[in-house]
Amino acid sequence: MTAPVLIIPGLGNSGSEHWQSRWQALHPEFQRLQQRDWDQPRYADWRQALEQALEQALEQAVAAAAQPPVLVAHSLGCLLVAHWARETRQPVKAALLVAPPDLENPACPQDAQGFAPLPTAPLPFPSTLVASRDDPYGDIVFAARCAALWGSRFVDAGYCGHINADSSLGDWPRGLELLDQLRG
Fold it and tell me: Is the N-terminal amide bond of 106 cis, ω within 30° of 0?
C-alpha cells in the first residue's frame, strides 16, 4: 500500500487552479491541512494544526495498515515543515517541498516573517525540493541552499514562476511523478 498524502498549502491556501487543489480533486483520498487563518500566518498556530493533522493521518494509517504520510508542501508550507520537523516526534515517510520562499526577499509578504529564521537542520526524512529559475519569492540559488541544508534532493523545474496557479501547470504531471517516487 502506498503512503497517504497530506497537502500543506502556503499563504492564502492554494486556490482551485493551484496544482495542490487539482491533485486533491484527482485524488480525493489526499488530505489537506486546514488553518484557522491562511492570510495572517502565525507559526505556532500553523505548527499546531500540522501536528494535529499528522496525528489524525497516522491514526488512519495505522487502522489501514498503511505507511506514515508523505507531506506535499508549497511555499510557506515548506518553511512550516522544515521548522516543525526539528520539533516533532511524528513519523513522516517523506516530503515534497515546492518553491520555498526567501523571507529576506523584499517581494516576500511581511505576514510570513513569523517563520524566520530559515531552518538549517537536515530533515529527519527523505525529501525532494523543487524550485523554479524565476520564482519572484525565492531565487534558484536560495532554493538550492535550502535543499543542501535540509538534505533534500534538488529538482530544477526550469522557468515556471512560483510554481502556483499563475504558472499554468494544470495538474502538474512532473510533480505527481516526483510525489509517486516519494510514496513508492
Answer: no
- Amino acid (one-letter) located at 42: R
Residue 139, C-alpha cell as written in the block: 531565487
- pLDDT for 4-24, tens place per residue? 999 999 999 999 999 999 999
1 burial level (CB within 10 Å; 0-12, 13-18, 19+): exposed
Dihedral Cα 53, 152, 74, 77, nearest 10 deg? 50
Give per-residue burial for 71-109: e unless 16+ CB within 10 Å, then b. Answer: bbbbbbbbbbbbbbbeeeebebbbbbbbbbbbbeeeebb
What is the pTM (predicted TM-score) of this model?
0.95
* Residue type, position 143, single letter: A
Task: Give the three-state DSSP class for 154.
Answer: strand
Which residues on adjacent β-strands are paired with residue 79? none
pLDDT, tens digit, for every residue of 73-111?
Answer: 999 999 999 999 999 989 999 999 999 999 999 999 888
96's enclosing H/E stretch is strand 94-98
Chain CA centroid to CA 95, Å: 7
d(CA 62, CA 84): 22
